[in-house]
Amino acid sequence: xxxxxxxxxxxxxxxxxxxxxxxxLYVVVCAAGVxxxxxxxxxxxxxxxxxxxxxxxxxxxxxxxxxxxxxxxTGRPIRSAWRRPGDARPFPPPDAVVVAPATFNTVxxxxxxxxxxxxxxxxxxASGLGVSIAVLPCVAxxxxxxxxxxASLERLRGMGVRFGDPYAGGPEExxxxxxxxxxxxLDLLETGEAGAPLTR
Length: 200
Fold this sequence. Notes:
Elements lengths: L23 E6 L8 H10 L3 E6 L10 H8 L21 E7 L1 H9 L5 H12 L2 E6 L3 H4 L2 H12 L3 E2 L19 H9 L9
Parallel strand pairs: 1-2, 1-3, 3-4, 4-5
Helix pairs in contact: 1-2, 3-4, 3-6
């Protein structure tokens, strides 16, 4: 497992666990269409003096975002599979974690403790270690209405996870997709806000 806290419970941006002395942020990317724009989050985090490493679900690695661009931007490989025994850790311990976009499947598995991927396993361990975590959900309205999802949100919030506003990903008037507010995740880490009400 990779998410070993540098200073459990320390305020985001204070741990300095990156090799450069800057705080290290894990960005967990799930398989949603808006993931194609995840470089916006990486750039915004770097501008706020975070060093960034990306962990993606296996499905997200299958064409949901430009992996070469992300690796060039972070200067590190994207992690998706478990390390083999004896392999070096490619990332330092996280000072904070952002999950964006967070899908129905990942949120439910994380809340249930089903660590069947590196991404979910990292989230489960980071939660247990007290690492600050901010989540930007990307879940369709029909799925967000499912009782299991509502229960998962409640459980994760009870664990101290901070959620941004619900985002369904559908088109607005005129047919364009609504804007996904990537920087909101960084704001949640810095301000410690509890996030949006449990409407979805």
